[in-house]
Task: structure prediction
Amino acid sequence: MTHERVIALTFDDGPGPSTGALLDALARHGARATFFVTGQSLRGHCLDGDAALARSLAARALREGHALGNHLDTHARDPMPAAALVGELRRVDDLLRG
Result:
């Protein structure tokens, strides 16, 4: 337990076009965040299909002390059957491990 005032920074749906600049800003201020990534984004969906860049940004976030969280593969907004949900979680977990 802490008596300090703290804030949790979280960012969703990346990595994307602003992730590098965001990591730079966090580094300048010595701040840490949690990035909730989607499988689509890790495959480069938000970066013109550049999966290598997406993966390198996620790896950089980890190297710099940030946490990565699983935000599903497709970021589906509609309810889905449990098996489909588990499948989405596993696909992202596999990308994060791989």
Summary: Residues 82-97 form the longest helix (16 residues). The beta strands are 10-14, 34-37, 67-70.
